[in-house]
Specification:
Layout lengths: L2 H13 L11 E4 L3 E5 L5 E5 L8 E7 L5 E6 L3 E5 L4 E5 L15 E6 L6 E6 L2 E6 L4 E5 L14 E6 L6 E6 L3 E6 L4 E6 L7 E7 L6 E6 L3 E6 L4 E5 L14 E6 L6 E5 L5 E6 L4 E6 L12 E7 L6 E6 L3 E6 L4 E5 L14 E6 L24 E7 L2 E2 L3 E11 L5 E8 L4 E3 L2 E6 L3 E11 L4 E10 L11 E5 L2 E5 L5 E5 L14 E6 L7 E7 L5 E6 L4 E6 L13 E7 L6 E6 L3 E6 L4 E5 L14 E6 L6 E6 L3 E6 L4 E5 L14 E6 L6 E6 L4 E5 L4 E3 L18 E2 L6 E6 L3 E6 L4 E5 L14 E6 L6 E6 L3 E6 L4 E5 L14 E6 L29 E6 L5 E8 L18 H6 L2 E8 L8 E4 L5 E3 L8 E4 L7 E10 L10 E7 L2 H6 L3 E6 L4
Parallel strand pairs: 30-36
Antiparallel strand pairs: 1-2, 2-3, 3-4, 5-6, 6-7, 7-8, 9-10, 10-11, 11-12, 13-14, 14-15, 15-16, 17-18, 18-19, 19-20, 21-22, 22-23, 23-24, 25-26, 26-27, 27-28, 29-31, 31-34, 32-33, 32-35, 35-36, 37-38, 38-39, 39-40, 41-42, 42-43, 43-44, 45-46, 46-47, 47-48, 49-50, 50-51, 51-52, 53-54, 54-55, ...
Length: about 1000
């Protein structure tokens, strides 16, 4: 090692953060939901979700009361390194053996990790690394991605030596990967390697093109290295700009971060963001900013380093999952970012986009790690929560009361309540009303007379009681079909087959919802398999399942392979079911006892039965139990079990299963690297999992930034672009998701019209759909998207060749339109008890019900025009200029029909006259119908537009027909009383 290199390392690691008069060097460390601090007097403190504090501590509390602590680490436990070289651990969980004591039993008191001595450094993520004085590295805990480096994926409950490593001087650990720096300046990595065809390195391998490195930092998908010349190099995932090179392009090999010099410390441990400390004491950050972790507001992502404002003379930094810590030279500590568990230590649970001082122990003053900690700090108060009732049907009124509120060294003076849907209250009790189904967290902050705050939390489940005839409303859409479930158990459908037991009306079908014609009541869930005529399923309150539609692969599940069933049939051989999901031609059912049954097409093993034979009746999938959720993609399936693990099977040619290969599986396999998962979803080609921290993980090709990869990652990888998703759906080229605040977001390619946003370019970063702030359900197919709003109205957009949008037309829609009701006299309302709040600009100028029959070579088309808008206002009562509304209310109208054929080089517009003759468009238009009455709520005028017309010419693809009415063409245009009702589909 050169003398210059030695001098630089002295500046970074000794001179910069040494504090005269202190027993040990102060230290800060951040984990997923916690922060841990080592005071210069040797005492250890923590905020957030640390041992013995659940759901968290909002100001520092004493941890790891041990003598001679010289270093600390936080991961899935709390760790201390003592001056004698021993390591001690404590934690509320030990499910992966992360406490290193040879068991999976948690313990809240610190205990020595057996058999581990002469340790000089420790690092923790989902696993723990220890560097010994002999320069060897030892590891234990979670090993799903090979992050322990022992050549296996087996979790280790006791330390094992990392294979083939020696002469190591520094170590770094993230949740899924590990790094080591050797004394020769080279870097070695193992664990998850997102851009390696192998998926994971089970033993250390050198990182190419790096030398003279002086420190390292492992992240969850991206890594960083600091060279002796003060430059920073990064490699790995870049979906949020965390590489810092001004792009979203992933980097399989290290690249220098432009414009970043004189750096003395780096941190990549955060989820999809990175930070750096310069020699002048300034802090710089880049990447994901969804929780304010870049230290600035009003920014979603930063692809180049941004200086964190308000900080100076900083000497050390640390990054958690989505929060950051920084210590100033005088020992003061600052924090910002995610604060769900109080981890930034400011006495609140509010996220912060700007650095704020961490409170001192007990909630008063400011934390300072070079000053002796108080010997007897204020003890935080505590409480429990009584919930009445803890669950029930929406809308649900719930009473909360603080119980056993206590302050050990003072008195409780205040109570602050907050629900996860943003409801707030103060006082010893509170009442919240939850109008939508879901699981809600209610948090109570209890404040004492010294300003300290303790946290209590409770869950409320808002759902439908088993056995009732009510349901949680939702919608489903597949190519050519739409289905809706109302909150009273009614089923409505529209599109290709027209609905329950009703004969189809030709190639196009019903353009408005039709109710059940077979007396179905008590439905609680719905599902659609396939496109075209499709196969539809209804789950009843008693756990029974009804199905109808296509059955060529046995997907109807009734024991035969009959071509189609037009009437609902009961599925036999099924125990009571709690949930249904469907792929293209296979179906899954989750029973109330946590088992999974499957039937239908099985060519790719998507039924999980150990072979590839189709099944015509439901068959239990062996080896699956305690399942709490299921999902089905194009030809693959997923299941989530109660322990938070995910299982997958079926087609894997695009790594949909995320098992590190592209081998299809006909039996369920556990997905490696996923833990503490709470929700799963499947699009046409992706599996998606959301963990307990809200992190979103996905497999397979994605229709945005990852799609440019030469090869899809073979394992589930973290996708911060989907952060905040509580429900997700997608076709092959787009994803739609909703957030807890009711907003809806889309990302993907434009080809299918399914994005719902005007424009020509693809959407590579999720874009919010305007005007929607109360979504409670989203659905998607390859060419369509759909949203159910909290007032029960439904929006849809995309292709509409079979009337699958349900807006009363056969016209393609690039932006959301409202689905109409069964009589086309208003809008579909699945929650009639809630007052509708439809923005006026969403309401069309008049309502229609369009019908078509025949194929493209012989199409007949007619539409019924209604004289009243969905808002209840007479379309004729608009008036214009000096003409009174009363005059128009009594006037007769003319109906006008036009066509647009954009493929024609000459004039693309045509008009239809009263003799059914098409001619070039001219003004004023010729009327199609004369003197019709559309001046009352019951007025309906039928316009027969096409009769056995041949529309099969390629020149007509994309052509559209418009209908309008007015006293004359000018009045029609002034009142904007016209709309597109039909688009010619591909032959």
């Amino acid at each position: 090692m050169t003398s210059g290199w030695k001098r630089w390392m002295c500046l970074v690691w000794l001179c910069l953060i040494s504090f005269s008069g202190n027993a040990v060097t102060p230290m800060i460390n951040a984990a997923n939901q916690a922060s841990i601090f080592l005071n210069g007097d040797g005492s250890v403190w923590g905020t957030g979700s640390v041992t013995n504090y659940s759901p968290g501590a909002t100001s520092p509390v004493r941890l790891l009361s041990l003598p001679n602590v010289v270093a600390v680490a936080a991961g899935l436990g709390d760790y201390a390194l003592l001056g004698d070289g021993t390591v001690w651990a404590s934690g509320s969980f030990n499910n992966y053996g992360q406490l290193g004591d040879g068991t999976t039993q948690p313990h809240s008191d610190p205990r020595q990790v057996p058999g581990l001595f002469n340790v000089t450094a420790i690092k923790a993520g989902g696993h723990v690394l220890a560097l010994k004085a002999d320069s060897t590295v030892w590891a234990w805990g979670l090993n799903a991605q090979g992050q322990l480096g022992d050549g296996t994926r087996i979790d280790r409950y006791s330390p094992v030596e990392v294979a083939g490593l020696s002469d190591v001087m520094r170590i770094s650990a993230s949740t899924v990967s590990s790094l080591a720096l050797k004394s020769d300046g080279t870097v070695w990595e193992w664990g998850l390697s997102v851009f390696d065809s192998e998926g994971s390195h089970l033993v250390p391998s050198p990182v190419p093109n790096l030398d003279r490195v002086i420190t390292i930092s492992a992240g969850s998908g991206n890594n960083m290295a600091l060279r002796a010349d003060g430059t920073v190099w990064a490699w790995g995932a870049n979906d949020s700009g965390q590489i810092g090179d001004g792009s979203f392009v992933p980097r399989p090999l290290p690249v220098q971060i432009p414009g970043l010099s004189d750096v003395v410390a780096i941190e990549a441990r955060g989820m999809s963001f990175s930070i750096a400390l310069k020699a002048d004491g300034s802090v710089w950050a880049w990447g994901n900013n969804n929780q304010g972790q870049l230290g600035v507001s009003g920014l979603t992502y930063g692809t180049t380093p941004i200086r964190v404002p308000g900080l100076s003379d900083i000497v050390t930094i640390a990054a958690g999952y989505s929060h950051v810590l920084a210590m100033r030279r005088d020992g003061a500590v600052f924090a910002w970012g995610d604060n769900m568990h109080g981890q930034i230590g400011d006495g609140t649970l509010q996220n912060r986009a700007e650095p704020r001082p961490v409170l001192g122990p007990g909630g008063s003053g400011q934390l300072n790690l070079v000053q002796p900690a108080p010997a007897n700090p204020n003890q935080l108060p505590s409480a429990q929560i009584d919930v009445n009732p803890p669950s029930g049907r929406a809308p649900l009124s719930v009473n909360f009361a603080a119980r056993n509120a206590n302050d050990p060294d003072g008195s409780v003076t205040a109570y602050y309540w907050q629900a996860s849907d943003a409801q707030q209250a103060t006082g010893p009790s509170a009442t919240f009303v939850f109008s939508l189904a879901g699981t809600y967290t209610v948090t109570l902050l209890v404040e004492d007379n010294a300003g300290g705050r303790g946290i209590a939390s409770a869950l409320v489940v808002v759902t439908q009681p088993p056995g009732t005839t009510s349901s949680n409303p939702n919608v489903a859409i597949r190519q050519g079909n739409g289905v809706a479930l109302a909150n009273d158990g009614r089923i409505l459908s529209w599109g290709y087959d027209g609905g329950l037991g009703r004969p189809q009306l030709g190639v196009f079908g019903h353009m408005i919802p039709v109710p059940s014609a077979n007396g179905i009541t008590g439905a609680v869930d719905i599902a659609i398999a396939g496109g075209g005529i499709g196969t539809k399923f209804v789950l009843l309150a008693d756990g029974g399942v009804l199905g109808w539609g296509a059955n060529d692969k046995g997907q109807l599940g009734v024991g035969s392979q009959q071509a189609v069933s037009s009437a609902p049939q009961s599925l036999r051989n099924l125990p009571p079911v709690q949930a249904l999901t469907a792929g293209v031609e296979h179906v899954l059912a989750l029973t109330r006892d946590g088992k999974v049954f499957a039937w239908g097409r099985n060519a790719e093993g998507q039924l999980g039965l150990g072979d590839n034979a189709n099944r015509f009746s439901p068959i239990e999938i062996p080896g699956l139990s305690n399942v709490i959720a299921i999902a089905a993609g194009f030809n693959f399936s997923m299941a989530l079990t109660a322990d938070g693990t995910v299982w997958a099977w079926g087609e894997n040619t695009s790594s949909q299963l995320g098992d590190g290969s592209q081998l299809s599986r006909n039996r369920p396999i556990q997905v490696p690297g996923l833990a503490n998962v709470q929700r799963i979803f499947a699009t046409m080609g992706n599996g998606v999992a959301v963990d307990a921290d809200g992190a979103v993980w996905a497999s397979g090709y994605l229709p945005f930034s990852f799609a440019g990869d030469v090869h899809p990652p073979s394992v589930f990888r973290r996708v911060p672009l989907l952060d905040g998703a509580v429900q997700l759906a997608g076709g092959g080229q787009h994803i739609i998701f909703r957030k807890a605040d009711g907003t809806v977001w889309v990302v993907g390619t434009r080809g299918s019209l399914a994005l719902g946003v005007e424009g020509t370019g693809d959407i590579q970063v999720p874009q919010q759909l305007p005007g929607i702030t109360d979504a409670i359900w989203v659905a998607a197919s390859a060419n369509n998207s759909m949203v159910l709003r909290g007032d029960g109205t439904v929006l849809a957009w995309g292709r509409n060749g079979s009337g699958e949008l349900g807006d009363g037309t056969l016209a393609y829609r690039a932006t959301p339109v409202l689905v109409v009701n069964e009589t086309a006299s208003g809008f579909l309302d699945l929650i009639p008890e809630v007052t509708n709040t439809v923005p006026p600009d969403w309401i069309p100028p008049f309502l229609v019900a369009t019908y078509s029959s025949g194929d493209l070579s012989s199409t007949s088309l007619y539409t019924d025009l209604r004289g009243i808008t969905a808002s209840g206002t007479f379309a004729s009562a608009t008036g214009d200029g000096d003409r009174s509304a009363a005059r128009f209310a009594a006037a007769g109208y003319n109906v006008y029909v036009a066509a647009n054929v954009p493929t024609l080089a000459a004039s693309s517009y045509f008009q239809l006259d009263a003799n059914n003759n098409w001619s070039a468009f001219r003004w004023p238009m010729s009327e199609f119908l004369r003197g019709v009455a559309l001046d009352s709520q019951t007025s309906v005028v039928r316009a027969q537009i096409l009769q056995n017309a041949d529309l099969s010419s390629p020149q007509l693809v994309g052509a559209s027909i418009l209908v309008g009415y007015g006293t004359d063409p000018d009045e029609m245009v002034r009142a904007a009383r016209y709309r597109t009702i039909f688009t010619v589909t591909q032959p």
